[in-house]
Amino acid sequence: MDIQNSNNAEKLAYTVDAAADAIGVSRGMLYNLFKSGDITPRKAGRRTLVPRDELARYLKTLPSGVATA
């Protein structure tokens, strides 16, 4: 399967806007996560990219939404 021509292929990295959409936060919140070191972006020339595995790692650090009694 050709990754570049497949609409269903998962991207290895996202732009800032796409990464924010992917994890459900605003662009500003994502930049705050960069600043705090919670998510580490990468640079490709002038472009800022966020690796998919970096987003998944961050989400795994968040507390669950299940309340414990």
Commentary on this structure:
- With 69 residues, the chain is an alpha+beta fold.
- It has a single domain (11-61), classed as Orthogonal Bundle (Multidrug-efflux Transporter Regulator, Chain: A, Domain 2), CATH 1.10.1660.10.
- Helices cover 41% and strands 16% of the residues.
- The chain contains three helices and three strands.
- It has helices at residues 16-23, 27-36, 52-61, and strands at residues 13-15, 42-44, 47-51.
- A three-stranded antiparallel β-sheet has the order 1-3-2.
- Strand 2 and strand 3 form a beta hairpin.
- The N and C termini lie far apart (48 Å).
In short:
This protein is of the alpha+beta class and 69 residues long. The chain has helices at 16-23, 27-36, 52-61; strands at 13-15, 42-44, 47-51. It has a single domain, classed as Multidrug-efflux Transporter Regulator, Chain: A, Domain 2 (Orthogonal Bundle), CATH 1.10.1660.
List the helices and strands and how they pair.
Blueprint: E1 13-15, H1 16-23, H2 27-36, E2 42-44, E3 47-51, H3 52-61
Antiparallel strand pairs: 1-3, 2-3
Helix pairs in contact: 1-2
Number of domains: 1
Low-confidence stretches: none
The major β-sheet equals: 3 strands, antiparallel
CATH topology-level name: Multidrug-efflux Transporter Regulator, Chain: A, Domain 2
The share of residues in extended strands comes to 15-25%
Number of helices: 3
Mean pLDDT: 89
CATH class: Mainly Alpha
SSE run: EHHEEH
Total number of beta strands: 3
Radius of gyration (Å): 14 Å
